[in-house]
């Protein structure tokens, strides 16, 4: 909305209407990337960035480039999960909200981290939904 953009510009919260589009296009040009595709969908805008032509030609399609090859199934997959388990090991009663505040991630991300630990049977939830807590399990899946 242009009126809202003008108000935000006057409050020095926003530069001006459309200035970000040009910076993004210029950055893509400078980096040798194809120009992004802009799709307006009601009140939302979707921006599609295409891979660099050099990378797109050299990598097979639909293969994850940074997926761990031999990650053990019974270990935490990321630093947030390791932190969560360390807190439990120290006797803490941590929740998804603690991951959010410690790591500045969304609640959905924190819940996925915990769900992954539960799926690997590294932790379990004990008690009622509102008053219960997580604890470490003695043995995880595949141990």
Give structural notes.
- With 143 residues, this protein is an alpha+beta fold.
- It folds into 2 domains: 2-58, no CATH class; 79-136, Winged helix-like DNA-binding domain superfamily/Winged helix DNA-binding domain (Arc Repressor Mutant, subunit A, Orthogonal Bundle).
- Helix content is 42%, strand content 13%.
- It contains 6 helices and 4 strands, in the order H-H-E-E-H-H-H-H-E-E.
- It has helices spanning 2-10, 19-31, 53-58, 79-89, 96-103, 107-119, and strands at 37-41, 44-48, 123-126, 133-136.
- The strands form 2 sheets. Strands 1-2 form a two-stranded antiparallel ribbon.
- Strand 3 (123-126) and strand 4 (133-136) form a beta hairpin.
- Helix 5 (96-103) packs across helix 6.
- The mean pLDDT is 82.
